[in-house]
Design brief:
There is one protein chain. The chain contains no helices and 12 strands. The protein starts with 5 loop residues before the first strand and ends in a 17-residue tail after the last strand. The chain is mainly beta and 139 residues long. Strand 6 (58-67) and strand 7 (70-78) form a beta hairpin. A 6-stranded antiparallel β-sheet has the order 3-4-8-7-6-5, with no helix packed on it. Strands 2-1-9-10 form a 4-stranded antiparallel β-sheet, with no helix packed on it. A two-stranded antiparallel sheet has the order 11-12. It has a single domain (6-122), classed as Metal Binding Protein, Guanine Nucleotide Exchange Factor, Chain A, CATH 2.170.150.40.
Length: 139
């Protein structure tokens, strides 16, 4: 857990707020913050469609958000049954900053990682280059 204040906002509402997020860093990516599901406003997340596979963490499930009558598809993902060694991510939600109205770490606005697949959170203290920009697929 980071101890840092992580917030996610949609439709003018803070839908997730925690100091218990797990910050995950991977090669060529800005960090991703996994928010414990208990720290997401109840009823906001509904199962989405599709899945993907991480060679390290296992099968990812996708989540839609419904706030104020607005549905945002694939707003985030989780590992409901992560592979051994990643149990601490079980059921925590990683929000895509590009699919929410605002994401903040300790009050600082987050910039989304480029590309539609990656969900990294870029703050001023995180320096690239990052995967997701044109020409970076093969890194």
């Amino acid at each position: 857990m980071t101890g840092r204040l992580v917030e996610v906002e949609l439709a003018g509402r803070v839908v997730a707020r925690t100091t218990r997020a797990v910050r995950v860093c991977e090669t060529s990516h800005p960090p991703v913050y996994y928010v414990p599901r208990e720290d997401v406003v109840p009823g906001v997340l509904v199962p989405g469609s599709g899945s993907s596979w991480c060679e390290w963490k296992g099968a990812a499930s996708y989540w839609d958000a419904v706030v104020g009558g607005r549905r945002v598809p694939a707003v985030g993902w989780s590992y409901e049954r992560p592979t051994r060694g990643y149990e601490h991510l079980r059921s925590a939600i990683a929000f895509y900053p590009s699919r929410v109205d605002a994401a903040r770490v300790d009050g600082v606005a987050v910039r989304a990682q480029a590309g539609d697949f990656y969900g990294g959170w870029i703050t001023p203290d995180v320096v690239g280059p990052f995967k997701g920009e044109p020409g970076t697929l093969g890194w």
